[in-house]
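Subject: design request, 92 residues
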């Protein structure tokens, strides 16, 4: 398990810089509580992430819904629905 954790923590992430207000590359291990992270479609999502918003079709109302596969947590390969926070999901 330690090897899998090390590999996951070395994965690249896009973190919003507080100084430049742009997404910058970093490693997962560099993230801190309160960082904003952009996760690409079909990208891996750490278990301790709060979903604030989801990219959706521009011509439909925001619903804040995404689908997450939790195979590495519980062994199930089916997709589970996760919702962004209602106060933030239309802010993208």
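Subject: RE: design request

Done. Sequence follows.
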């Amino acid at each position: 398990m330690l090897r899998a954790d090390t590999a996951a923590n070395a994965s690249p992430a896009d973190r919003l810089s507080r100084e430049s207000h742009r997404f910058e590359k970093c490693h997962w291990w560099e993230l801190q509580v309160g960082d904003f992270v952009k996760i690409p479609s079909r990208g891996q999502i750490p278990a301790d992430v709060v979903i604030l918003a989801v990219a959706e079709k521009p011509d439909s109302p925001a619903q804040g819904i995404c689908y997450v596969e939790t195979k590495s947590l519980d062994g199930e390969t089916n997709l589970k629905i996760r919702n962004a926070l209602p106060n933030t999901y239309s802010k993208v």
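The two ends are 36 Å apart (CA to CA).
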